[in-house]
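2024-03-11 09:14:02 DEBUG pipeline.ingest accepted 1 chain
2024-03-11 09:14:02 DEBUG pipeline.ingest length=433
2024-03-11 09:14:03 DEBUG pipeline.predict start
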Amino acid sequence: MSRIKAFHALYFDQQRAGNISRLVSPPYDVISAEEAKMLRARSPFNTIHLELGEPGDADFYRKSAGLIEGWMQEGILRRTARPAVYFYETEFSYHMGGRERRKTRRGFFALLGVSDYERGEVLRHEHTLSGPKQDRLLLLRAARANISPIFVLYSDPRESLVKALKKARPSEPVFELTDDQGIRHRLFGVSEGAAMDKITEFLSQKSVYIADGHHRYETALNFHKELAEAKDPMAEASGWVMAYFCPVQDEGLVIFPYHRLARNLPEERLAGMMDRVRENFSLEQIAERFDQQSSSKVFRALDRAAKSRAVIMIDRARKAWLLKLKPGLQKELKAELDVEILRELLLERALGITQQEITDKNFVQYETREELILKRLEAEDFQFAFLLRPLAVDKVIERADQSGVMPQKSTYFYPKLPSGLVFRKMQFGEDFS
């Protein structure tokens, strides 16, 4: 069902722009102000200059478009001579369940045809917000380029596409780098016709699922409709968006949960809070104090909770509690995700935090990485922390197949795709003959 194309990528010429490790950046929506400043100073050719404007710079979109054109003319960015797909593998370490793990994730970059969700070619699991879409639309209108890819999933139990690309890849990568987090990236261009035909044919029978990049996907779709209605000559090219494709069966597909941290709650909301928790959960204290010595034990206890619907609560005294949903509710709330149970029974009922207050970011903040939870609790004045288990990828697929969406901050696919390995500039010619 989905439509896939190879494409002529733009990529950095390291002889002119410098080493690729100085040129890539994280996706625009996860860059802190401090990190943005560092990236801008790292190189005049760092991707952040295309991707993210400085606060208050209303002229950013025009500047970004000008930089892309200028870098193409100067040879900073070069266009591949042949259309290709780009096999990409990344090796990384992370903490989960109280211990360090190491994985390799494999997939590929190609173009994905955009369409309304109702057609079933591309499915979502998140709501989007108007502000980020307007920002990305202004950039897309100006630059007419895909600077960062969206991240999509597809089912391939035998991982046949990844295996075919791994076999067809050249001996030397286009880029190989280790980033600031110690994550290793390797990118290979594959233009072999048989491999590309296999991808196109295989995915023409499948739906794909957006993992990351809902705002960018919907922006690309809206931009395509805008150009099609205006009969713009670039309308055909705009009907495709650069995407990274990863099989749901890949052992390196890692999803972090968004742990919730609560602060600034008025004392009247906290009165009787533990009694309200006990209405729906059984409580087991697993650490007298959540600290450097006990943190691994706490996360392991959550990891071992097996099929119980469970969450860890760190209270104001920094005691760690394992909360298990009572048996009657286990069956009643079977279809709900842990993050939905947390929101309804703990944030809303026990603490009285409304959905609007969550949206307005009044009392709740988020953290994805286990090793940073303790640091934040020590450095910031949080009253409670609620620690979740990661969501299984089949739950993402199931919810998308049901045309349903999850609450904001339900999934954090790790590691994020770097921006700057490949770009895609919309144009006429052999790409869309």
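2024-03-11 09:14:41 DEBUG pipeline.report The CA atoms of residues 11 and 422 lie 5 Å apart.
2024-03-11 09:14:41 DEBUG pipeline.predict end
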